[in-house]
């Protein structure tokens, strides 16, 4: 994994939130920051050249203005402007990056879906963790929420979340959710023993996933949570009060690089806070 944090810069209002989030992390981690603006939509039509050149100049000016705005305290900031498909260019930029940061126009409950197909493709296909910054203020929130499921990708999500919680000096809220199997209506209620065993197994799996964190981060407050319900709903509820949420990407099969698991996709579809997707 490389050391630079790459953030996509656009003319959308949320772009400034994404740049600010990335700049703060870069400064605290002493990482270089790259502001990447992309001009897309060119078709090669006659007379298009002048329009493209003007768009490139505008994008360059925007990136440089943002770089000037955040340059402070020795933060290393560089700008880059490219032509092409924004999704493809951002995915290319994720190769060798430490982190890719993008903005979302989602503004909370009642707003449209947080990310369309393009945003989901970026989160799914990037070669590094992707952070999606929604278009609302999270000032005053506390904690880093991470979904824990015991999978290899889930372990990477836990490691990422623990490092971020330690950096932010925030508690790590590690959540494992268990969901009973659907049963025919004529079965009535679930057997008590079955529910108790599910909860116990989930608690044991969570303990295993968190083992070693206390020695690695002795000052980190770790709050384990075992909940019954549907994972994306539980994560969304807890993330609504958190500074950061972290989920793992669980794509499968030959196209796994460009797929998100259903839970991570549902979390991104209704962003509750700044959200990181770890592959």
UniProtKB/TrEMBL annotation:
<feature type="domain" description="UspA">
    <location>
        <begin position="4"/>
        <end position="134"/>
    </location>
</feature>
<comment type="similarity">
    <text>Belongs to the universal stress protein A family.</text>
</comment>
<feature type="domain" description="UspA">
    <location>
        <begin position="144"/>
        <end position="279"/>
    </location>
</feature>
<dbReference type="Pfam" id="PF00582">
    <property type="entry name" value="Usp"/>
</dbReference>
<protein>
    <submittedName>
        <fullName>Nucleotide-binding universal stress UspA family protein</fullName>
    </submittedName>
</protein>
<dbReference type="InterPro" id="IPR006016">
    <property type="entry name" value="UspA"/>
</dbReference>
<dbReference type="InterPro" id="IPR006015">
    <property type="entry name" value="Universal_stress_UspA"/>
</dbReference>
<dbReference type="InterPro" id="IPR014729">
    <property type="entry name" value="Rossmann-like_a/b/a_fold"/>
</dbReference>
